[in-house]
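Quarterly update from the structural biology core.
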Amino acid sequence: MQKKEIRIDFEKKCGRIKPLNCINGGPRSGGYNLPFDFTDEFCEMGVPVVRTAGSAGEYGLNQYINIHCIFPDPDADETLEESYNFLPTDLYLASIRNTGADILYRLGEGREPYSRKLYARAPKDPEKWARICEHIIMHYNEGWANGFKLNVKLWEIWSAPDSSECWADGEREYFELYRITANYLRERFPRIKIGAYGARGFYSLNRLDATEEMKRYVPFMQRFFAYITAEATAAPLDFFTWACYTSNPEELAMHAKYARNYLDSAGLRRTKSIICEYNTVDRGGTPPALRDGLPSELLASLIMAQKSPVDMLIYSTSDIYSRENALFSMDDHQTPHRYASFSVMKSFASLYKLGTAVDTGDDHRKELYALAAIGKDEGAFLLSVRNHEGRVELVLNSSPFNTCTVSKLQPGGVRGKGTSYRSKDVDVSSGRLLLSVSPGEVYTVSFFSK
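Predicted structure, tokenized:
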């Protein structure tokens, strides 16, 4: 059997574990009245941030989050409380806060995959639209209109205006809307973070089969950056959001490096880079949640994001009716079913809670992906086995721990739940631990001292 070695150096710190177990959409979904509640699952996954784009799924778009849901009459007076319908979104955001997660609120409209766009288009009066956004922020952060003081810091202006499904007008109209709104909100709320724009991705950089629409994404981004950094049209950009739908963790890392490098070259070195939508590619046929390779693929992507120049990663999606949701389902409308990917996110949350990454040496790319973290009295190690059959020896350098437990998640199982195994306490006072691994498996090693 082949043997590979991974060295964990507990004294060599590598920065904070980043918030990569974030999710698009809150814990409640299933239609306009949000009948399905996965608050417990969100708490177990330790979700740090929830992004609200596309919230409540296809059947909730006329109730929640979107500007036309909250401000239904575009000709109404935006300064009056009675012009707004906050209640459904109030309930939706409360369900997110109940999990302990922060909110990344998308100001704008949702996807409209139809030939005629009713809402996914430039507003007639951009200045008024900016003031409507102001009053939404006032409601959720300052208590206006019987509102709240949620201290929502992240406000994203629109999502995917580079996509024909999400923006019916020209790019110049979006650039201008962003400039007007971002500058107005910066003056009105100097402490919030303002960002854009849910870019659809950079697939044309490396995919030979990139569609004509995909080929438009990068030039759109380049012109947007040029616009907001020009003196005459300058606008703040605290964070830049972009999507990456891929089954290849290496592609995710490549796109993360490209986004960071381009931001820096555009003079936006302080702008955070956020992958606002991540998921595997839909290959048709078998739902992603039932693919045996998905758990190890998801963990490998989380690990590559941690080791890449990206500040946050947001999984898409928690919508119970979406094919992309490979975390949990409620097929019988009564009992939650947790897929193997849920366990992966839960394991990553344990490292995020510990806080500080430590060195694991060079990755055996495309075969093994490793990540370790240390806290005050504990340590943890994650291993994604992609293309290796044999033994893996962990060498523990400067380890303060003498005992560990080992959990193994095998793919498959009943309805994609995976099969879990857990060891009893294992003595690692020798500084070594030997694992026998197979492709598709995920390992979580928890270190402590007895």
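The longest strand covers residues 2-16.
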